[in-house]
Amino acid sequence: MPDLKIIPLTKEIGAEVRGVDLSKALGETVFPTLYQAWLDHQVLLFRDQSLTDPQMIAFSQRFGNLDLAPIPGHGRAFVEGLLEMFVISNVIEDGHNIGSLGDGECLWHTDMAWTPKPAKASCLFALEVPEAQGDTGFLNMYAAYETLPQDLRAQIEGRTIKHDTQYTLDGLDRSGGPPLTEAKASGSFDVAAIPGVSHPIVRTHPETGRKALYIGRRQNTYVNGLPVSESEALLDALWAHADERGRRTLHHRWRVGDLMIWDNRCVMHRRDAFSPDVRRVMHRTQIQSDLAPV
Ligand code: OGA
Ligand code: MN
């Protein structure tokens, strides 16, 4: 494969792969090289790709089985006949949003951390992007763990975080109950008591064997076994550390034809808000967890 090049994007995370056309079946030697580069750099970027949805699905499936996209409120799949295809977009057509996540800022998070078997990887392909807006950041959570001050490392040793299953990031109750703002206003909200799924704060990557900090998202997380005030203080300290690193990490400015795939086992990501007057349309696939069934 004379043309394949792997070019690191920053010292800590991300690599651009050149010389590959993802619309074609990848040779048996090419894919293992890409996969190893992905494990080494955690996020891969492929530019100038021209991909149909089935081609994107075929490429994503090399990383594992795919999750099905949630069915939007109007009851039809995002993409007719392709249940694996998610759409991330702010565009509204016929009164319906054609995708998820709107135009707001998405704070640092790990996809699906609130589920028992969180997705292994997520893949985004840029079909329409506004100029110089809606950048996506990627944070190396091995490095976040390795650079933690000793006292914080000691405090999280052997502990788990409960990730909220009740509320979405925009504070809606997943089972249709009152929103988070109302629950909080009622004075009876208890982060320790809401339903959730727990995972170790220090996660060992099943393929690299490296340890990564695994904190999901800030909203409604709780360190099991601690009084709420101590859990909040510990999470604030971990998030201050992650946020500080996040200011200096890879923030990708999208071009049409960019495809990125990231490893949710060792990466957090975020997105800048962008103007409601511009269109942003990304197609997305999600690779299922490789954890044993629970
Ligand atoms: C996602 C996500 C960010 C973006 O697809 O999981 O967080 O840049 N997307 O759209
Ligand atoms: Mn996400």
Summarize the structure.
The protein is an alpha+beta fold.
Give, in order, the helices and strands.
EEHEHEEEEEEEHHEHEEEEHEEEE
Oligomer: single chain
- Global geometry: globular
> How many strands?
19
CATH superfamily of the largest domain: Clavaminate synthase-like
Helix share bin:
10-25%
Task: Bin the strand percentage.
Answer: 25-35%
Secondary structure category: alpha+beta
Report the top-level CATH class of the largest domain. Answer: Alpha Beta
Largest beta sheet: strand ordering: 1-2-3-17-9-19-4-7
Low-confidence stretches: none
Molecular structure report:
- The structure is a single chain.
- This protein is of the alpha+beta class and 294 residues long.
- It folds into two domains: 162 residues, Double-stranded beta-helix, CATH 3.60.130; 105 residues, Double-stranded beta-helix, CATH 3.60.130.
- 20% of the residues lie in helices and 26% in strands.
- It is built from six helices and 19 strands.
- The strands form five sheets. An eight-stranded mixed beta sheet has the order 1-2-3-17-9-19-4-7, with helices on one face. A four-stranded antiparallel beta sheet has the order 8-18-10-16. It has a three-stranded antiparallel beta sheet with strand order 12-11-15.
- A hairpin with a 6-residue loop joins strand 1 and strand 2.
- The chain starts with a strand and ends in a 7-residue tail after the last strand.
- The mean pLDDT is 95.
